[in-house]
Design goal:
The protein contains six helices and ten strands; from the N terminus they run βαβαβββββαβαβαβα. By secondary structure, the protein is α/β, with parallel strands linked by helices. It has one domain: Nucleoside phosphorylase domain (Rossmann fold), CATH 3.40.50. The strands form two sheets. Strands 3-9-8-4-10 form a five-stranded mixed barrel. A two-stranded antiparallel sheet has the order 5-6. The N and C termini lie close together (8 Å). 42% of the residues are buried.
Length: 202
């Protein structure tokens, strides 16, 4: 099966044996460039975007949990005025700011990773390292998890008509960083277990 495994940082894939993989780089710009170059060279059956992420409070997720991101959104592309935040769609500068993962592939992944919740994700340029910023993102798009590449992968896959799914493991709670309960080692171990199960089961 022609699966492209895509991740942002090399440590997220360190120790995995992936037959076809792509290091996206950190952030929307690097991820878009890397994935566009790769897809121009040939299209896979599906892009599996995997990595660690922060979780928002009140979502039922804890550090070390693995989740499927079934919907991605942009949280901070737009304008902030005294009246609040308006995204690119509201400004009539973009057709959409939300993307859904491929439903058939999401079901397949879910059947392998039984019991893993499907959640909303949001992609940011500025990670929420304060409670105030985390609260602002939460009010805008009601996400469960935060990353810096998910929506970029979704948009590029949409442009190339390639299905995508996203698997995330929680490394921390968003907001005040000193209170984030960080455990990247646990998140990486759980993430790698999920990827290996997918390699065997898809």
């Amino acid at each position: 099966m022609n699966i492209l495994w895509a991740y942002a940082h090399p440590k997220e894939a360190e120790g995995l044996d992936l037959p076809a993989s792509l290091e996206l780089g950190v952030g929307k710009i690097e991820a878009s460039l890397a994935l566009t170059r790769r897809l121009c060279a040939g299209l896979p059956e599906v892009v599996v975007n995997f990595g660690v992420a922060g979780c928002f409070p009140g979502t039922g997720l804890e550090v070390g949990d693995v989740c499927l991101v079934s919907q991605e959104s942009l949280a901070d592309e737009g304008v902030v005025t005294e009246d609040g935040f308006e995204d690119l769609v509201a400004l009539k500068l973009a057709a959409r700011a939300t993307w859904r993962a491929d439903e058939a592939w999401t079901r397949r992944v879910s059947s392998v990773l039984q019991g893993v919740p499907s959640v909303r994700g949001t992609t940011v340029s500025t990670v929420s390292g304060t409670d105030a910023l985390a609260s602002a993102y939460a009010k805008r798009v009601r996400p469960a998890v935060e990353s810096m590449e998910g929506a970029a992968v979704a948009r590029v896959c949409e442009a190339f008509d390639v299905p995508w799914v996203q698997v995330r493991s929680i490394s921390n709670r968003v907001g005040e960083r000193r209170e984030g309960g960080w455990d990247i080692r646990l998140a990486k171990a759980r993430l790698h277990d999920a990827v290996r199960r997918l390699q065997a089961g898809l």
